[in-house]
Specification:
The chain has 31 helices and 32 strands. By secondary structure, the protein is α/β, with parallel strands linked by helices. The structure holds ligand MGD (2 copies) and molybdenum atom.
Length: 761
């Protein structure tokens, strides 16, 4: 990856800034001014997450009920930045590619690449060529068809999806892949909440949150594990504020004291901008990286000791009896656990763990939220099952103000899964899909992200198709991913902006530019809209309002249909062309295949859309036993060799995944650089490091070493033995096989490293 190019010197300021508040407005104003024609940018913000507007392209945080929305009620700083970034006035046109060869573009950093603006026309790079050049849509589709139809078997093609794709496009995309004959449908979920889906399905019968937005304010206690909502789901903070106003308590579990929990000022309530900010967290548990499983077990152990003394006063025995299996086994496990061993493994003191247990002891309405700090771990599924255990023991699921809250990332990542973008969809789905389209879907499971990389490395995967995203940088083990993509015969990316996945290409490469969420989507039959599903399982319509950035852009739906037409030819029994002109027809098919979409076309047009069925919300646990499962998840203690640290990769406040908006991480007081390593001040002293010293990071996995050099040391309030760098830069250190055991979620928050001071240059 290309070096950070901020011209300003690194600045660090340990004072944590307020989350949201007036400075977030200032930041948005800057981005709108920088990127857009101001009128266009501001007009668009008014349509964000509104009944008749478009779904925010940033995170998947649920929108409130339409009744609760104000004019720009669903504004947040980072959503607004994402909108400004998409509605930019900058364009990447034909002259741009004449002037810039692949080689010269490779020398640019990732911020610069996207900053060039929206892609405007289809582009191709043929074998041996140095520059991309324009190609017509028809020729692009013909090129793809020629490559795909030439493959010895369908499994030589890989169809990746990023989570911005709409329900309608995702449904057609997976249909296309399966009609072509493969289940190779890796997606960004594989690197994100895959472990949550796995653990929740097994224990409560559905891999999605059991709570809806309105539950949050009703909770007595909300625990939040491994998530930085101030940056990554900013609208969550105002819900947490409501919870606090109702007397609820918040326990934050995180190696970093994230600003959002400490000092919050509502961006739309100027009267809060002066005076004291709201402190959201009531208890902060600075857990060691991956100490969460031990912490969860320790809390349960303490509660179990109390339960034995006062039977039925701590645990919800009635709920346990009626709705769960596994109580005996779990109490036996808790009986045998050593509290001191658990405490040590968590990295916390027994005192604070007891405080947390005390806050939960007499409470019945408990919500546990979690995100990447929990899922991107080697034992992610076990930790998530422990979250479920705690909730089940307290009977805190399937009622108001209680339940599971895995906070989804990408705006429609959850919807894409519901639509069948998954390499191992269940037989029930496959049968219905086959029936609805009169074909036999492939039986074998396909590859997820990790296996997709391996398949390309092995020379089996020959065509890589990316429906959005930036696979080259988002996937683990950067060097291997680059090698994998470069081995392909063809790489295709459907994108809005230029990114590294266009430059790390197969022998032939195509860039297909598409409409963004904010833009009007007009087919031969008139204006079309799409729909998305948020974290709480609500499905809503999304209709852009802006004139497209270029008249050559096609919607993702139209691109899939065009490609299908070329690949399958006129004999295809599926009416691809009519899908492209009338999205209602796609929704009719979705309704026929996927449960919960009855009267889709009618209900999607109602303000606020509709909720998908969710058994765990109603205490209907669709598991193998028909009950919720309490499970035993032993603690495995990892002994680190002397001198090793555990490194996590996190997002800064100025990025959306691989999209780098800028070089500041305002909430963490780090400015002008992303090439930093956050280190505990005590560890810095032990290593004889000063702020700004350049460091060589070496990661270790199964006898292999990976290296990242030249990052600056920054003293930070992080537990000893733990260090942090930013994603995606840190991906060079993540070994491809370093992932969770049951769902292959890359352990991008658990990397064993050493830190070496580099000689001053
Ligand atoms: N503005 C913005 N919004 C986004 C995104 C973005 O990049 N920018 N990305 C979107 C996507 S796809 C996703 S998945 C979400 C991601 O949202 P988050 O999960 O909040 O993202 P990360 O920055 O990866 O933060 C992980 C948090 O976990 C903590 N953590 C790391 N290791 C551990 C651990 O072992 N235990 C505990 N308890 N905590 C730990 C880190 O300190 C950090 O606070 O955000 C979505 N929203
Ligand atoms: N080390 C490490 N690695 C990680 C993570 C981590 O925390 N640490 N997080 C992981 C997670 S949670 C995720 S979700 C993945 C994210 O992985 P991806 O989803 O693959 O990556 P993004 O950076 O979101 O993709 C950005 C690109 O999407 C394109 N794009 C933007 N909008 C649209 C649109 O509307 N349509 C289309 N077709 N394209 C569009 C633009 O061209 C842009 O360059 O990364 C994962 N990788
Ligand atoms: Mo994600």
């Amino acid at each position: 990856m290309k070096k950070d190019k901020s011209e300003q010197p690194l600045k660090t300021n340990p004072r944590v800034s307020d989350a949201a508040g007036p400075r977030s407005i200032q930041s948005v104003a800057y981005h709108i001014w920088e990127e857009t024609y101001v009128g266009r940018g501001v007009k668009t913000l008014f349509k964000l997450n509104q009944g008749k507007g478009f779904d925010c392209p940033s995170c998947a945080w649920p929108d409130p009920d339409p009744k609760e929305m104000s004019s720009i009620a669903e504004y947040c700083e980072n959503g607004a930045k994402a909108v400004a970034w998409e509605t930019t006035k900058n364009r990447v046109d034909t002259t741009f590619f004449k002037d810039h060869s692949i080689e010269s573009l490779l020398a640019q950093n990732d911020h610069w690449l996207e900053k060039q603006g929206r892609l405007t026309e289809p582009l191709i790079l043929r074998p041996g060529e140095k520059n991309y050049h324009p190609i017509s849509w028809e020729e692009s589709f013909a090129e793809i068809a020629e490559h795909l139809n030439r493959l010895a078997e369908p499994d030589e093609a890989i169809f990746y999806t990023s989570g911005r794709t709409s329900n309608e496009a995702a449904f057609l995309y997976q249909l296309f892949a399966r009609q072509f004959g493969t289940n190779n449908l890796p997606d960004c979920s594989n690197m994100c909440h895959e472990a949550s889906g796995k653990a929740l399905n097994e224990t409560v019968g559905i891999g999605k949150a059991s709570v809806v937005l309105e539950d949050i304010r009703e909770a007595e206690v909300l625990m939040i594990f491994g998530q930085n909502p101030g940056t990554n789901a900013p609208r969550m903070l105002s819900e947490l504020q409501k919870l606090k106003q109702n007397g609820g308590k918040i326990i934050a579990v995180n190696p970093l004291p994230e600003a959002g929990f400490m000092q919050f000022r509502h961006p739309q309530k100027p009267w809060e901008w002066i005076g004291k900010p709201t402190e959201l967290q009531d208890l902060y548990l600075p857990v060691s990286i991956n100490g969460d499983l031990a912490l969860l077990k320790a809390i349960q152990k303490i509660l179990w000791e109390e339960e034995k003394q006062y039977p039925g006063e701590v645990f919800d025995l009635e709920f346990i009896r009626e709705f769960t299996v596994g109580y005996e086994a779990i109490t036996k496990e808790l009986e045998g656990c050593s509290l001191s061993q658990l405490t040590t493994a968590s990295g916390l003191s027994e005192t604070v763990i007891r405080q947390a247990a005390e806050m939960l002891r007499g409470k019945k309405r408990i919500i546990i939220a979690w995100a990447m700090g929990i899922t991107q771990q080697r034992n992610a599924e076990s930790t998530i099952r422990e979250i479920v255990n705690l909730l089940l023991l307290k009977g805190a699921i399937g009622k108001k103000g209680a339940g599971t809250l895995p906070v989804r990332g990408h705006s429609n990542v959850q919807g894409d899964r519901t639509m069948g973008v998954w390499e191992k969809m269940p037989e029930s789905f496959m049968n219905k899909l086959g029936q609805a389209f009169s074909f036999t879907p492939p039986k074998n499971h396909g590859v997820g992200t990790v296996d997709a990389i391996q398949s390309m490395l092995d020379g089996k995967g020959k065509v890589f198709f990316g429906m959005g995203g930036n696979f080259a940088l988002a996937a683990p083990d950067t060097e291997k991913v680059f090698e994998a993509l470069q081995k392909c015969e063809l790489t295709v990316n459907v994108s809005t902006k230029l990114n590294r996945s266009h430059l790390i290409h197969g022998k032939t490469a195509l860039i297909l530019p598409c409409l963004g969420r904010t833009e009007q989507d007009i087919s031969s039959l008139g204006a079309q809209f799409v729909s998305t599903e948020d974290t709480a399982g609500r499905v809503r319509m999304s209709a852009g309002d802006l004139t497209p950035s270029s008249s050559y852009l096609k919607s993702e739906v139209a691109i899939i249909c065009g490609m299908a037409g070329a690949v399958f030819g006129p004999e295809s029994p599926t009416a691809w062309e009519s899908f492209a002109s009338d999205y209602d027809l796609i929704r009719e098919k979705i309704e026929a295949v996927i449960p919960g979409f009855d009267s889709y076309n009618e209900r999607i047009r109602k303000p606020g859309g509709f909720f998908l069925p969710n058994g765990s919300r109603e205490r209907k646990f669709n598991t193998s036993s028909g009950k919720a499962h309490l499970t035993v998840n032993p603690l495995t203690i990892q002994q680190l060799p002397h001198g090793r640290f555990i490194l996590m990769t996190v997002r800064s406040h100025d990025q959306f995944n691989t999209t780098i908006y800028g070089y500041d991480d305002r909430y963490r007081g780090i400015r002008n650089s992303r090439e930093v390593v956050m280190i505990n001040a005590g560890d810095m002293a032990d290593l004889d490091l000063e702020t700004g010293d350049k460091i060589k990071i070496t990661s270790f996995f199964q006898g292999e070493e990976r290296i990242l050099e030249g990052f600056s040391a920054v003293p930070y309030d992080i537990p000893k033995g733990c260090v942090s760098v930013y994603f995606p830069e840190g991906n060079v250190l993540v070994a491809i096989d370093n992932h969770s055991p049951e769902s292959q979620c890359p352990a991008s928050k658990y990397i064993e490293v050493t830190l070496g001071k580099m000689p001053a240059s």
